[in-house]
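During the no-cost extension, the postdoctoral fellow (Dr. R.K.) reprocessed legacy sequence entries with the updated structure-token encoder. One reprocessed record is reproduced below for audit purposes.
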Amino acid sequence: MDLKSIEQTFNLIYDFEKINNSTRKILEEIVSKSSINFLKDEKGNLPKGVKYSDLLIEYKCVNIFINNSDREFPYFRICYDLVHPKTGIQMFYYHVDYNIDGEFSDDYFGRY
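Re-encoded structure tokens follow.
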């Protein structure tokens, strides 16, 4: 099986378009409520004059973890970047892990 076949099978089994859209909505909600969630603690890391709502949300990739020594079952991670609107520089990342059944498992937010 080649990687293109694996990609097509993954997209079909997990309804990639749907799970990608729902992950994006999670991030959009986090950004829209940045004044009342964990992002308020990161506000000092934004450039002067830039708000979270100014940052561009860009899909980056899906990582599939198999034969991982940390987990018993395979899982996948959808990765997004929050990008400065003028410079195009990635400022933050947001990753969401999904278990083998395609259910939300964990999420991670951090600075580059």
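The chain has one domain: 3-111. Strands lie at 56-65, 75-83, 90-98, 104-111. The remaining legacy entries will be reprocessed before the final report is submitted.
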